Amino acid sequence: MAQTMVNLHLDTDLINGMEQACKDMGLSVTTAFTMFATKVSKEQRIPFEVAVDPVYSKANVDYLLNAIADVRLGRATLTEHELVEVDDD
Predict the structure, then answer these.
(1) C-alpha 68, offset from chain centre
(2) Domain span holding position 56
(3) Do 42 and 64 lie in a common domain?
């Protein structure tokens, strides 16, 4: 089987974390990417859920920016609240 060199530009911390995780599983980064590419090729999909975090939706970001503006303009104030302990039982 012919092979092709692929160059990726990744954050150093990200690739270091991946290298360590792969090493812990007895894999190389090349093997992990090959497994990923094989699965994508066979299934014609990303093999995990890819979704936008709703925290970063336009509506939520707009709401937060408006709230920040209100605080800065003195139209709103921030108040402290007691922490609520939650039992995991």
Answers:
(1) 25
(2) 49-79
(3) no
